[in-house]
Please model this.
Amino acid sequence: MRTKNPGLMPWQQEKNHELPVGSGTFGLLLFFVSLSVLFVSAVIGVVVVKLQFPDPEFPVRFPGVGWQGSTVCLILVSALVHAAVRAVQVDEERRFRVLLLGSLLAACGYLVFQTIFWNALFAQSDALARSVESGFYALAMLTALHALHVLGGMTFHGLVLFRAARRRYWSLQHGEVRALGLYWHFIDGVWLILLGFLVWLAR
Model:
């Protein structure tokens, strides 16, 4: 019969819930591949339209506001989640939860700055009233697609934070936290690449 070590914290007593190192990583990588194919397919479609209509009569200009704050917030999310993973690996429980909460707030900041970005985009009424040649639909589709995956990440993030508040994670049991970190790093990288592409598209 398995005995509990009295020197461990209460949430560390449940050894039966431990998962092998790397559990879920393969599924997460498959998700990343699928998501990458989706974004690449969308980008290829946009490039084809752009090449067909290199100089639209009413082009959409890349908004000068919103994207800076969005970029800073996503980088901050990625950095804070990475620090949270390091904290849980050494059982710094309080610091771990604070970093998780801070990173979720930074993700909320991203959505705020994206709203500013979209408002500036929709202010270009002349171009928006035109056909696909304007480039608006491409900008809207790609940024909306990314924002939806940010919302999905925030949902998962909220679940991890809830479980962290209930002391479900520690140094030998934090696979979900690692998965969350990988997800945000991926979303961060996609945004940086997407940002460069959008600047080219609306130049």
